[in-house]
Design brief:
Strand content: 15-25%
Number of strands: 9
CATH superfamily: Spore Coat Polysaccharide Biosynthesis Protein SpsA, Chain A
Helix content: 25-40%
Structural class: alpha/beta
Shape: globular
Largest sheet: 7 strands, mixed
CATH topology: Spore Coat Polysaccharide Biosynthesis Protein SpsA, Chain A
Number of helices: 9
Order of helices and strands: EEEHEHEHEHEEHHEHHH
Mean pLDDT: 96
CATH architecture: Alpha-Beta Complex
Number of domains: 1
CATH class: Alpha Beta
C-alpha cells in the first residue's frame, strides 16, 4: 500500500497553533489535506499526529475531511510513522509536512511512480521550490532507521536515512521544470509565511487550485514571493541547529 502521511501537531513556538489558524474559513492543515487529496496514486491519506490532548482537534479535522488519522509518539517522528505504517499496512509513503500548504500532488505521484519502478528506499527532492515536496520513504528503510536511532527526538529525521548508509538515496526524477527553482518559500513557520499563504488563498477564493496554479500566480505577481522569502535562510539555519544524529553504538 502507498500512502501520504500528513505529519502535524498543534504545538508550535514561532507561530502558535499554526496548524489550526484559519484562512478563508479553513484551517491551514486542511489546505495540506486538499493538496494530498489530488494525488492519483496514493491508496490512503493518513494524518499522523501525537497522543497529546491538544491534538484531539487535528483528529476531528481528519474525520471531517474523510481521511484516516494515527496518534503516536509526541517527539519521535520516526516511531510515529513506523507505528502508523504497521497499523495501516503501508509499504511506501510520501511525507507531507503540516507546514506545507501547497505541497504538490504531482511530485508526490512522481515519487510513487519511482518507487513502483525502482523499489526505492528513500527519495528526496533536488533544487525544488521550498515546501513543494518532502520525502518518499519505504517502510523497510524506516524500520532500519528506527532500529539504529538512540533517541526519541527525531523531529529532524532525514539524517537517519542520508547520513547512516542504511538505504539507497535517490533524487526525485522527471521533475517538471516549473518546480526547479529556489526563489519561492511555501512553508508555514513565521507570521510572514502566514501572510504569504493568506494572500494567495484569498486570490483564488473558493476556486480549487494546484501548486502549478500558485507558481504561475507568483510569476505574474512577483511581489508575492517577497512577502516571506527573506526568511528562508533563517529557517534553514534553524533546521541545521535542531538536527542531530544519535545512533546506537
Amino acid at each position: 500500500m502507498k500512502a501520504i502521511f500528513i505529519t502535524v501537531r498543534t504545538g508550535s513556538s514561532r507561530l502558535p497553533k499554526k496548524a489550526i489558524l484559519k484562512i478563508n474559513g479553513k484551517s491551514t492543515i486542511e489546505y495540506v489535506i486538499d493538496s494530498a487529496k489530488q494525488s492519483k496514486l496514493a491508496d490512503k491519506i493518513i494524518l499522523c499526529t501525537t497522543t497529546l490532548p491538544e491534538d484531539d482537534q487535528l483528529c476531528k479535522i481528519a474525520i471531517n475531511n474523510k481521511i484516516d488519522y494515527f496518534r503516536g509518539s509526541i517527539k519521535d517522528k520516526l516511531q510515529r510513522w513506523n507505528d502508523a505504517a504497521d497499523k495501516f499496512g503501508v509499504d511506501f509513503f510520501v511525507t507531507a509536512d503540516g507546514d506545507d500548504l501547497f505541497c504538490s500532488y504531482e511530485l508526490m505521484d512522481l515519487a510513487f511512480q519511482q518507487y513502483d519502478e525502482n523499489g526505492s528506499d528513500f527519495i528526496e527532492g533536488d533544487r525544488l521550490v521550498s515546501g513543494s515536496f518532502t520525502y518518499g520513504i519505504s517502510t523497510g528503510a524506516l524500520k532500519r532507521a528506527c532500529d539504529i536511532k538512540d533517541t526519541d527526538d527525531t523531529e529532524m529525521m532525514w539524517v537517519y536515512f542520508t547520513k547512516t548508509g542504511i538505504c539507497n538515496i535517490e533524487k526525485l526524477l522527471n521533475v517538471p521544470e516549473i518546480y526547479l527553482r529556489n526563489d519561492i518559500r511555501m512553508t508555514l513557520d513565521y507570521q510572514e509565511d502566514f501572510n504569504f499563504f493568506e494572500t494567495i488563498i484569498h486570490h483564488f477564493g473558493n476556486t480549487p487550485f494546484t501548486t502549478r496554479d500558485v507558481l504561475r500566480l507568483i510569476d505574474q505577481n512577483n511581489h508575492i514571493k517577497d512577502i516571506n522569502y527573506f526568511l528562508e535562510d533563517r529557517w534553514k539555519q534553524n533546521q541545521i541547529v535542531k538536527t542531530e544524529l544519535v545512533v546506537k553504538e
